[in-house]
Specification:
With about 150 residues, the chain is of the alpha+beta class. Helix content is about 45%, strand content about 15%.
């Protein structure tokens, strides 16, 4: 299945007029092999481990091209660096502001909110770009600590 997905993504790059270089193939493979959320720096390190001659700027340009094509999305999980994931695995993120725990939730979770915002404010939201910040069950149940 991964090989099929990789070839489908590479074909999208070709159809957009892009060449399928070793660097692009390695980046797409790194995205497909990632078991968790990854930053551009994570992806660059993975690609450069196998292909030391690939520059970080190539990784960033390729991520931009893949995002423009709708293949990948970047998400801001709080104040940290943006993370990347394939857009065919659509989901939203909940992030604990205390411990940093991340929960992936189905895209449909925000359908009612999107409908309500569209109806009341004539505004179409795209909630996948940012995480919803809150407190996980463990942190919410923990007694508050006095600061200072």
């Amino acid at each position: 299945m991964t090989a099929v997905r990789r070839e489908r993504i590479l074909e999208q790059l070709r159809a957009d007029g892009g060449r399928v270089t070793t660097a692009r193939r390695a980046l797409v493979t790194a995205l497909l092999d990632a078991d968790e959320h990854v930053t551009a720096d994570d992806l660059a390190a993975t690609v450069q481990a196998a292909h030391p001659d690939v520059h970080r700027s190539t990784i960033y340009r390729t991520l931009d091209a893949l995002e423009r094509l709708g293949v990948v999305e970047h998400v801001h999980l709080g104040h940290g660096r943006a993370i990347y994931h394939l857009s065919d695995e659509a989901h939203h993120h909940l992030v604990c502001e205390t411990c940093g725990f991340v929960v992936e939730v189905p895209e449909q979770l925000f359908d009612d909110l999107a409908t309500q915002v569209r109806s009341q404010y004539d505004f179409a939201i795209h909630p996948r770009h940012f995480a919803i910040i809150g407190r996980c069950g463990g942190c919410a149940a923990a007694p508050a600590t006095a600061s200072g």
